[in-house]
Amino acid sequence: MKKIIATSLICALAISAAGCGDKKIETASLTEPIPEQSEAESTSENAEPTQEETAEVTSDLYEAFKQGTASVKYRGTGDRSGYIELSSILEVDKAYTLDEIIEACKTIGVYNEDGNPNITYRSIDCGQDGVPELLVNIEFGAATNLTMIIKEINNELVMCFDQDGGERFYVEVSDNGVIEAGGASGANVHDMDYAFVDGNGDYIFYYGVTETLAPYDDYYAYKNGEDYVTIPVEGLDADHIGIRDYYFEADFTERNHMFNYYMIDDNYEDITTDADYDDSNLLKQRFNEAGINTYTKAEMDQMISDRATEIGYPEK
Questions:
Q1: What is the CB-side half-sphere exposure of residue 201 using CA atoms within 13 A?
Q2: What's the Cα-to-Cα distance from 173 to each of 46, 67, 285, rounded to whole Å?
Q3: DSSP β-ladder status, 178-186 and 169-173
Q4: Dihedral angle at the C-alpha atoms of 91, 95, 100, 105, nearest 10 degrees?
Q5: What is the dihedral of CA 150, 254, 192, 165, to 10 degrees?
Q6: pLDDT computed for residue 167 by the predictor
Q7: CB 208 within 8 A of CB 6
Q8: 14-16 and 26-28 beta bridge pairing
Q9: Which residue ranges in the chain fall short of pLDDT 50?
Q10: Type and span of the H or E element at 212
């Protein structure tokens, strides 16, 4: 099962949250969907999209796929599905109709009660090159859905991206192919990641982050891949500590982790000062003793900005 993850761009991660009791968890995101609406969409701005209301896609192949007479090739690239793990039920380089994908999902227990999932379509423009792609969302129920980006390449349809969402995780795709996914993997742990599909149909991972607020037990800091060290929090004011684990690799086993810690008040607001990054900070000392370097917020912001430039991350 793949892990799915969490946070922001130049403003970095802006999450105000709490772990338990009456404290509420809220996640603020930077990458918001781009609200370019078609005429059909603008007539019902606040309504949930239906197959009839979503924008038309010009390709005959897209229309044939919607009608169940064309197949899409599963490439395995851009595969971010977790609970609906397509890699376990679909074969790489084999093509499937929409019905076949739904039936394959049923084999791993993903289906809605009446057997007919709600399917919506939207035309998007990855790379903003004027060539449309098809965004497909299969809603198996309130708790489970599957999002796919499909592109016509050399007169065949290919699946460029797939990811599932549910009660604890969500997936949002902007009109220019920017993908934001996030959710809660624990009471005080929040994940988010950012990626995009470009005009060539290639899935490009931007970055992800896992944020832990007020750690109530020892913190497990991953170093490379699945190797980790333990950062003890005993003797620290853990209720007023936040830790962010950033990475630029989509594959969990290949990640190089970069850590930023910060101080929070009783309302989970960031109150970090420059002095908190001094060598005298006990949390910083414990990271150092474990052989792990930590970065200031400004340093992480710069690395994330450089990463955006390097991969050509689309502007908001």
A1: 22
A2: 17, 23, 40
A3: antiparallel
A4: 40
A5: 50
A6: 81
A7: yes
A8: antiparallel
A9: 1-58
A10: strand 203-213
C-alpha 211/C-alpha 213 separation (Å) is 6
Q: Return the structure tokens found at 63.
A: 């229309």
Q: Contact, 247 vs 208, CB < 8 A?
A: yes
Helix (H) or strand (E) holding 259: strand 258-263
186 CB contacts (<8 Å, ≥6 apart)? Answer: none
Beta-carbon neighbour count of residue 99 at 10 Å?
9
Tallying the residues shown for the chain, one arrives at 316
- Token representation of residue 124: 């998007």
Q: Is 141 helix (H, G, I), strand (E, B) or coil?
A: strand
Q: Which neighbouring-strand residues pair with 16? A: 26
Give the SS3 label for residue 311.
helix
Secondary structure of residue 19 in the 3-state scheme: coil
What is the rounded CA–CA span in Å between residue 71 and residue 100? 9
| Cβ neighbours of residue 127 closer than 8 Å, sequence gap 6 or more | 176, 177, 198, 199, 200, 314
Tell me the one-letter amino acid at 22. D
Look at residues 177, 136, 202 and name the one whose alpha carbon lies nearest to residue 316: 177
Which residue(s) pair with 264 in the sheet?
A: 270
Parallel, antiparallel, or unpaired for β 241-247 and 228-231? unpaired
Distance in Å from the first CA to the final CA of the chain:
30
Count of beta carbons in the 10 Å neighbourhood of residue 163: 26
Number of other CB atoms surrounding residue 222 within 10 Å: 18
